[in-house]
Each structure stands twice: as structure tokens, then as C-alpha cells.
Specification:
The chain has 492 residues and is α/β, with parallel strands linked by helices. The chain has three domains: 3-42, no CATH class; 47-169, Enolase-like, domain 1 (2-Layer Sandwich); 180-490, TIM Barrel (Alpha-Beta Barrel), CATH 3.20.20.120. It is built from 17 helices and 14 strands. The chain has helices at residues 3-9, 12-26, 31-42, 107-121, 129-138, 150-168, 172-180, 220-242, 262-275, 316-333, 351-359, 375-384, 394-397, 400-412, 430-437, 451-467, 482-485, and strands at residues 47-56, 62-70, 73-78, 189-196, 209-213, 283-287, 294-295, 298-300, 313-314, 339-343, 364-367, 389-392, 416-420, 441-446. The protein has an eight-stranded mixed β-barrel, surrounded by seven helices. A three-stranded antiparallel β-sheet has the order 1-2-3, with helices on one face. Strands 7-8-9 form a three-stranded antiparallel β-sheet. Helix 4 crosses helix 6 (150-168) and helix 6 crosses helix 7. The longest helix is centred in the middle third of the chain and has 23 residues, at 220-242. It is globular. Bound molecules: 2-phosphoglycolic acid and zinc ion. 2-phosphoglycolic acid (PGA) binds next to loops. Its EC number is 4.2.1.11.
Length: 492
């Protein structure tokens, strides 16, 4: 091909002239930079390369990371992972070779991405999220997605979403809002873990997390300040009462004093809220994760005690009574600190007690293990009014499109939606943008401590700063942020 033929084929003279004219028209201070950006925008939108690798999550367990390349750059995402025994979740793919990471390495999932998924996605437009996600889903016809691995699918889907946002030159949260048809961006109330127990910590506390919700803050930044200050007052209280050993932290960064009774834990948190001067502006919540200590049809409140003679079994009715007391006693004795949300108060198959407790209407009842972000279990729970909040863990569903659908399903049922981290996290902050874009009003991302937890909170601080005057914090409307969506103006 001659030089002239080449120039003609690519219409180069015309394109360069257009770029120069545009720079002149805008009187760009740096015309060369302006022209290069202008030309870059004209490049076609396509995925050019996908490269996956094995990295470690916050527990030191292998997980999947993906680099997706488009003509706009490289976009990285990593899949989180939770506790094992995920019977109702879609399946992660692990190698099972006991000689490597005790069976947890993910080289098969990595290979699936580098070979099967990459082959299917290269050339696709990264802004077309649902087409990308359907293509990934179609590669594995199994219900559980065990062949491809949900860890492989999710990491690619998240990377594509980031690439799509870059292609459109909008914030990731804005791109997610567009994909979901959401009309406003809302900064969520953080459910900040301050005490860890259950399977996440080595103390005797059966309940997995005690959380604080700074609903009375005016901005997300103020919420984090209130949360962090309360956390450090709590640390000082625990130091006074239990010594420095009580200040060790659990997998999600919550403090883990060796207490057994969760009412004692809630009392410590109440005192910390008071010391922080946040009385009335911070509410309390708990993830009981009761599936982890359900034995038959009873609950073993002492399930971590090495001395099994001290087992304390409670019936579902007794558990419900305890929870009801938390909601009423805390409310009446100390009018201003309310216990407002409880997650998995009963076993994942204990639909009966979960519904009976929800019917009391004392607080938000969130289904985590109960629902496992599974649309069918969610449908049943909405039909039967078993609970009224969805804990949405994106790696339980597999792709960004599926996560958006499940969130919509819960919202259509007039439920609260909590975007959640996993106990095995990475430095990827994707869920921060997801919570803002879906305007869920709630995010659970652990303590204001440990890098993989604060990565999410720090991203929310950045989003709030970026949105400036247009930033809207869910605050008191944490369960029904739609009210705020009308007042929030989309960031363009
Ligand atoms: P997981 O814990 O990620 O270990 O499942 C989080 C939760 O139970 O909410
Ligand atoms: Zn949970």
C-alpha cells in the first residue's frame, strides 16, 4: 500500500485537520495535549485483551484478579470471597489440590478467563455491560456456575464495568446508575463494624458483627469521622475493661474482646457512642450470622467455647425474645440510641422464626445466609414477607448485571438493600461505586481499620468530593433513599 493509499484508507488528513480545528476553536492552552485527547476519543470502543492472575485476598487465600485492556487503557478488578460452606450461593472455582494453598488455589478459574472468557469478549464494546455479562453467563450452562467459577465471572464483569465507565468518561458510580436506570446518585450510610465475633474472630462472642450507622451525619465524610471516633473511644473502653488483648481485631477489622453475651458488646458500643458525643446520631445494628451456631433447631450461644460443657442452647423463640428486648430496652432506657437493624437473626433455613420476628416490626431484618443473593430465595422471602432487607454480595450472584437485577427485585418489594463486602476482601473498591450508583442507601464494608475495608470507605470519600455540591448522603433515609433521588442531581 502506498503512503497516499494508507492516508486515504484511514482518512488521516481529515481526522488530523478536525482535531487541529477543534483545538483552535477551544483555544486550548496546550494544543498538543488537546489534540491527543481528541484523537483518543475517536478511537473505537473495544476490549482488546484480558489477562487474569491469582492474587491473595485479605485472609491470605487465593482469589482472581483481572486486567482488562481497551483502547482507553487497562482496568483492574478482583473478586472477593466469603466463608466456606456456601450452599445457596453460586460456586467459586478452586483447584482442590491440597498441595497448593490447602486446595484453595484458583489456577483453573484464571485459565478459564485467559482462554474461554477472553476469546468470547475480545472485540466487544465495554459499555455494553449486559451483553458482556450474558456472554459470560452463556459460557457456563450450569445453575451454580461451577464450571467457569463465579470468581472468574465476577472479576471480568467488574473490570468490564470499569472499562465501560472510562469509555463514557463518567464516574463508575454514574455508569452503574445508567446501567440500572437509577435517576440519582446517593452516598450510602456506612454500617461500620466495631466489634467482631462469630467465625470472624477468636473471642467467645457468637454474633458475628456489631455495627454502627451514623445516620445523623450530614455528609458521608462526617459519617466516617463519627464512625472512626466512636471506634477509637470503643478501643479505649475495651482497653480499660479487658486489657490490650481485647483490642485485637477480627477479619473485618472489628475489635474482638473476649465476651460471650452480645448485650455486653452492645453496652460497650453504647458507651463509646456517648463518649464520642454522637448520642442520637448513631444507631446500632448486628449481624448475628446465626446459621453458624444453629444445632438442630436450637442455637448454641457458646459455640466457640473450647469447654463444651458450658453450652448455652436457646430455642428460636428465646432468640426472638432476646432480639425484641434489644430493640425495645435500648430504645426506652436510652431513648436516643436505637437498635435499628439485624442480619440473619436465625438459621438460613429457619424461615418460620425469621418471619415471626419480622412481623413484630421492631427493626430492619436483613437476609444474608437466608437469601444468599439468590433471586429465587429472594422471591420467596418477598412473597412471604420473611424479612425486609437484602444483603447483596456481588460474588454470590456472579456478574454486575445480575447484581443490578437482584437489587431491583428487592427494591420493587419495598425492601432495604445493603451492599456488602466479604470477609475475604481485596483492595478493589468496586462496591463503593455500586452502592452509590444503585442508590441503596446502605453499605456494609467492615471497620474503619484494615486496608481492604477502608479502601471502600476511602472511595466513597472521593466520590463525595467529586460530586461536590451535588452529593447527597442517605442519612435518616437510609432505608428509603428513593425519596432523596428526586432531589439529587445527576453528575455529568
Ligand atoms: P462472609 O461474612 O463474607 O464471611 O460471608 C460476611 C457476612 O456474613 O455478612
Ligand atoms: Zn452476614
Amino acid at each position: 500500500m502506498s503512503v497516499q493509499e494508507y492516508l486515504d484508507k484511514h482518512m488521516l488528513s481529515r481526522k488530523i485537520e478536525d482535531a487541529v480545528n477543534a483545538a483552535v476553536r477551544s483555544k486550548a492552552p496546550d494544543p498538543v495535549l488537546y489534540i491527543s485527547n481528541h484523537m483518543r476519543r475517536a478511537v473505537s470502543s473495544a476490549i482488546t485483551k484480558i489477562k487474569a492472575r491469582q492474587i491473595l485476598d485479605s485472609k491470605g487465600i487465593p482469589t482472581v484478579e483481572v486486567d482488562m485492556y481497551t483502547n482507553k487503557g487497562m482496568f483492574r478488578a478482583a473478586a472477593p470471597s466469603g466463608d466456606l460452606d456456601k450452599i445457596y450461593e453460586r460456586s467459586e472455582l478452586r483447584d482442590g489440590d491440597k498441595g497448593k494453598y490447602l486446595g484453595n488455589s484458583v489456577s483453573k478459574a484464571v485459565r478459564n478467563i485467559n482462554e474461554k472468557i477472553a476469546e468470547a469478549l475480545i472485540g466487544m464494546d465495554p459499555t455494553l455491560q449486559s451483553q458482556i455479562d450474558h456472554t459470560i453467563m452463556d459460557l457456563d450452562k450450569t445453575e451454580s456456575k461451577a464450571e467457569l467459577g463465579v470468581n472468574a465471572m465476577l472479576a471480568v464483569s467488574m473490570a468490564a464495568c470499569k472499562a465501560g465507565a472510562a469509555e463514557k468518561e463518567v464516574l463508575l458510580c454514574k455508569h452503574i446508575a445508567d446501567l440500572s436506570g437509577q435517576s440519582g446518585l446517593i452516598l450510602p450510610v456506612p454500617a461500620i463494624t466495631v466489634i467482631s465475633g462469630g467465625k470472624h474472630a477468636g473471642n467467645n462472642l457468637a454474633a458475628q458483627e456489631i455495627m454502627i450507622l451514623p445516620v445523623g451525619a450530614n455528609t458521608f465524610e462526617e459519617a466516617m469521622q463519627m464512625g472512626s471516633e466512636t471506634y477509637y473511644h470503643l478501643k479505649a473502653i475495651i482497653l480499660e475493661k479487658y486489657g490490650s488483648i481485647g483490642c485485637n481485631v477480627g477479619e473485618d477489622g472489628g475489635l474482638a474482646p473476649n465476651i460471650t453475651d452480645f448485650r455486653e458488646a452492645l453496652d460497650l458500643v453504647k458507651e463509646a457512642i456517648n463518649r464520642a458525643g454522637c448520642n442520637g446520631r448513631i444507631k446500632m445494628a448486628m449481624d448475628v450470622a446465626a446459621t453458624n451456631f444453629c444445632v438442630g433447631n436450637k442455637y448454641d450461644m457458646d459455640f466457640k467455647s473450647p469447654d463444651k460443657s458450658g453450652q448455652v442452647f436457646k430455642t428460636g423463640e428465646e432468640m426472638a425474645e432476646m432480639y425484641a428486648q434489644l430493640c425495645t430496652v435500648i430504645y426506652f432506657v436510652c431513648q436516643t440510641i436505637q437498635f435499628v437493624s439485624i442480619e440473619d437473626p436465625f438459621d438460613r433455613n429457619d424461615w418460620l422464626h425469621t418471619k415471626a420476628f419480622t412481623d413484630l416490626g421492631l427493626c430492619q431484618v436483613v437476609g444474608d445466609h437466608l437469601l444468599s443473593s439468590d433471586p429465587k430465595r429472594l422471591e420467596r422471602a418477598i412473597d412471604e414477607a420473611s424479612c425486609n432487607g437484602l444483603l447483596l454480595k456481588i460474588n454470590q450472584v456472579g456478574t454486575v448485571t445480575d447484581a443490578i437485577e437482584v437489587a431491583k427485585q428487592a427494591k420493587d418489594g419495598n425492601w432495604g438493600v445493603v451492599i456488602s463486602h466479604r470477609s475475604g476482601e481485596t483492595e478493589d473498591s468496586f462496591i463503593a461505586d455500586l452502592a452509590v450508583g444503585l442508590a441503596t442507601g446502605q453499605i456494609k464494608a467492615g471497620a474503619p481499620c484494615r486496608g481492604e475495608r477502608v479502601a471502600k470507605y476511602n472511595q466513597l470519600l472521593r466520590i463525595e468530593e467529586e460530586l461536590g455540591e451535588q452529593a447527597v448522603y442517605a442519612g435518616e433515609n437510609w432505608r428509603s433513599p428513593e425519596i432523596l433521588a428526586f432531589t439529587s442531581v445527576l453528575f455529568c
